[in-house]
Design goal:
Elements: E1 5-10, H1 20-30, E2 36-41, H2 44-53, E3 58-61, H3 78-84, E4 88-91, H4 94-100, H5 104-116, E5 120-125, H6 129-134, H7 137-148, E6 158-162, H8 176-194, E7 203-205, H9 214-218, E8 225-228, H10 235-246
Helix pairs in contact: 1-10, 5-7, 7-8
């Protein structure tokens, strides 16, 4: 069975209560492309409000702690996201790995926490520019896969997002061939470890995806959707990416 396309908006640290209207407009327009699964991950402050404002829509968190509760000031447990009605959580984004010092073991623990709380998980991997330029991108990313992906999960509840760090928010985009090569290597590593279950896992591309380049990127081999940053904040920019996915 073909994997359904999956387009996810990561709002990062953007959005206030008035932004709920933008999210509602996105979900309303995306409903015209029923063949594509669409989710929005707003800042934590908006998760509950967006769940209430968009019944039935997929709303997620941008991160979670590996523990269910405890003395972790400022952190959010996966169970808290689930309690608000979230259905998905992003873990291992490069802005967490690079800016907050999270390693593969941390990401793996967070992924396990998300799965245990009943959430679907989007687990991010990706290489910095110096690794890309040295020719080591595939080895670097596969090491992240080996260290970050849990051993036990349902294949339809864990997606991998390949986001080359140097392409996030820069306007730089790898060639379609490079994207296909990385996604193919990821698929191969997952198949070697999990067998046929890897066929059901979705691998998303992220990094300066927009309405102009989405169709070309989404046609690349083993690309099952997109994790979108800045272009996910408004319907005018995000829905063309959903439409591109629907057209494939």
């Amino acid at each position: 069975m073909a994997r359904r396309k999956y387009v996810v908006g990561n709002w990062k640290m953007n959005g206030v209560k008035a932004s709920i209207a933008d999210a509602q407009a996105i979900f309303a327009a995306a409903a015209n492309h029923a063949a594509v699964d669409v989710a929005i991950c707003p800042p934590f402050t908006l998760v509950g409000a967006l769940v209430a404002a968009a019944p039935g829509a997929a709303v997620g968190g941008q991160d979670c702690h590996s523990e269910n509760s405890g003395a972790f000031t400022g952190s959010v447990a996966a169970s808290m996201l689930a309690d608000l009605g979230a259905s998905v959580v992003i873990v291992g984004h490069s802005e967490r790995r690079e800016g907050c010092g999270e390693g593969d073991a941390d990401v793996r623990a967070k992924a396990e926490a998300g799965l245990s709380a009943g959430l679907s998980v989007i687990l991010c991997v990706g290489e910095p520019r110096e690794i890309r330029e040295s020719g080591g991108a595939i080895d670097y990313v596969l090491a992240q896969i080996a260290g970050s992906v849990p051993d036990d999960f349902a294949a339809d509840r864990l997606a991998i997002a390949y986001e080359p760090i140097w392409a996030i928010g820069t306007g730089l985009v790898p060639t379609v061939g490079d994207v296909a090569a990385l996604h193919g290597a990821i698929r191969g590593a997952l198949a070697a470890r999990f067998g046929g279950a890897a066929d059901d896992m979705r691998i998303l591309y992220g990094g300066s995806v927009n309405g102009d380049n989405a169709a070309e990127l989404l046609r690349a081999g083993d690309v099952d959707g997109a994790l979108v940053g800045g272009a996910s904040l408004t319907a005018a920019k995000f829905v063309p990416i959903v439409a591109a996915a629907a057209g494939l």
